[in-house]
Amino acid sequence: MYKTEEERLAALRASRNNSGKREWYCNVCNNGKNYNIRGRTNHLKSQKHQMNLIIQSEKKTIQEKSFVNNLIFF
After folding, report:
1. Largest CA distance in the chain
2. Could you tell me if 53 and 28 are in contact, meaning their C-beta atoms sit under 8 angstroms apart?
3. Residue 37 has pLDDT above 70, yes or no
4. Using CA atoms, how far apart are residues 15 and 53, in angstroms rounded to an integer?
5. Over 80: is that where the pLDDT of 72 sits?
6. Residue 74 confidence (pLDDT) above 60
7. d(CA 43, CA 27)
8. Residue 69, burial from CB neighbour count under 10 angstroms (0-12, 13-18, 19+)
C-alpha cells in the first residue's frame, strides 16, 4: 500500500490530526454553534452548559404542569 515507511508514518500522522476536526452540535445550548469533537468534554463541563441544562429542565416541568392542568379543565 505504501512504498516507504516515511509515507506510512506521514499518512498515520495526517489521520490523527484530522480526527479532532470533526464537529458536533450541542442540542442543549442551541446557540447555532458547532464545536470541535476535541472540545466536547470541556463544553459539557462548562458552567454555561450546566446553566442551560437547568433552564431547559425547568421549562420542561412547567410545560408538563400546564399540560396536566389543561387536561383537568377540559
Report:
1. 77
2. yes
3. yes
4. 34
5. no
6. no
7. 12
8. exposed
Q: Is 0.70 topped by the overall pTM?
A: no
**Dist. CA 5–CA 18, nearest whole Å:** 20
For residue 58, the Cα-to-chain-centroid distance in whole angstroms is 20
Cell of 5: 515507511
b (16+ CB within 10 A) / e for 21-32: eeeeebebbeee
**HEC assignment per residue over the chain:** CCCCHHHHHHHHHHHHHHHCCCEEECCCCCCCCEEEHHHHHHHHHCHHHHHHHHHHHHHHHHHHHHHHHHHHHC
**The three grid cell numbers given for residue 33, joined into one nine-digit string:** 454553534
